[in-house]
Amino acid sequence: MSSEAGKTLPRQEPSVSLETANLLALGELNEKDTDFSFPGPIESITQDVGGFRTSLASVGIGFQGIDLDLGEYNLLDNAHPRSPQQYDGQGPTYSVGIHEWVFTFDTSHIGLPGGQLLFSPLFYTTSRSVDGPTKLEIGALNYYQSLFNGHVGVKFGYGQLYNYFIGLAGVGGNATIQTNGVSALIPVELGLPLVPSSGPFATVNVHTNGGFYDKVGVGRGLSPLGEIPEVRASGVGLRFGAPQAKTVVIEEFGVNHPFSATGHQLWVRAGGIYNFTDYSTFDGRTAENWGGYALADYQVRKFDSANPASGIFVGASALYATPQVNPFTAYFEGRIYAIGLFDARPHDVDSVVIGRNVFSQSIRRRLAAVGTATAPSQFSVAYAHTFRVIPGLLVGPSLAYSDHPAFLGRFKGALTAGLSLVVLY
To answer: Which of 183, 125, 170 is nearest to 384 (CA)?
Structure first.
């Protein structure tokens, strides 16, 4: 008998198939240097059916289709009257629908290595007008260039500056995890364009092999008249100006260690935003707008080294905006979320998010003087379970309780059910 008999053989990791390796390679054509990212073709419903992505990639073209929808409704019979609607879910609300088609081009195919050209039309819709008008537009047209062996990234053109900083998409920066409850509106208040708004911008990202980075962005801020007048004036997009808007600048620094087979994910970031636009203050003057933020997310436990994205994560956020011109002046959040909590559902996500908005005392005093009731703050607790039905199809029911669901008026607490649908193709 061999001397090896009876010994426990080392565990053999499953090999990656050629099809999987090809899909992972095709993911390299996804948009570069963005905080609003989605999984690559391996997590899409079309993957590489018929070889269409491989054919496009042979000439340097990448494609990603994204549909993101969220509906909400207050289950408690205490929101009457239903009109005028003051918050999402007061009545049945189609809160947001983003339908985006992202095309990229790898400029190494024309002799410019490290470059990427991006073009992205999108269709935005909602049932509540205050959330933005329904429209079809050019959401982004920009160029990215990697320099100095990948340690510097430069991006410029037209798009949403919000998407390249802070990491507020979804839960913990994961845009496929959607929930309801209160959220951080502060970066938009400070003038960072967010879909359906776009504008000219430029960013420079300097980072080290150890994950440390310093990123600076400059762009045209949102119109102080509000997002809706701006979007309506922008037509189909590519309009570089906006009514009364001036320059907004943002700087963010931090450390970002992605999850891996041997390490845990860690993303800590902090930054400041300054907007040179003249905003009307709540006491009748004008002032420029500014604020800051700090966020952190950490993978405290990994379930399976073969699936490094699995595990339990914790995170926290704190954001601030000057109360002279911003109704929402502070936002605090704590979150815990798990990927693959149940062995039978290794790609599902469970999340619990606790959030608190604080409102400006300046605007509350001004509104109280004319008899308008306001809430001092908002507090909510939200739970969501995101089902990964098949690759590229995620369905996320959620439930959130908010003590003051609206800033204006006197509303009782709301128990809001939400349903998100994310389709990647």
So the answer is: 170
Phi, psi of 391 (to 5 degrees): -55, 125
Query: Can you say whether the dihedral through the CA atoms of 54, 387, 165, 123 is positive or negative?
Result: positive
User: How distant is the alpha carbon of residue 364 from its chain centre?
Assistant: 29
CATH of the domain at 177: 2.40.160.180
Residue 217: both structure tokens together: 């962005």
CA dihedral 209, 214, 218, 221 (to 10 degrees): 110
Exposed e or buried b per residue across 16-28, where buried means at least 16 C-beta atoms within 10 angstroms of its C-beta:
eeeeeebbeebbe
Residue 8 is assigned to a structural domain of this protein: no
User: Six-digit token pair at 300?
Assistant: 């405290």
Sign of the C-alpha dihedral computed for residues 231, 235, 237 and 242 taken in this order: negative
Q: Say if 52 falls within a structural domain.
A: yes
Q: How many CB atoms lie within 10 A of CB 156?
A: 17
Do the Cβ atoms of 124 and 131 come closer than 8 Å? no
Q: Is residue 9 part of a domain?
A: no
The closest of 422, 425, 375 to 71, measured between CA atoms, is: 422
Whether residue 3 is contained in a domain is answered as no
Q: Give the list of residues 6+ apart from residue 29 with CB closer than 8 angstroms, or none.
A: 57, 60, 61, 62, 104, 106
Residue 112 is encoded by which pair of tokens? 């410019």
Mean pLDDT, contiguous 10-residue spans, the chain (425 residues): 37 64 93 88 95 96 95 80 78 90 97 97 85 84 97 97 91 84 89 91 96 97 85 80 92 94 93 96 92 97 88 96 95 96 93 96 93 93 96 96 90 92 95
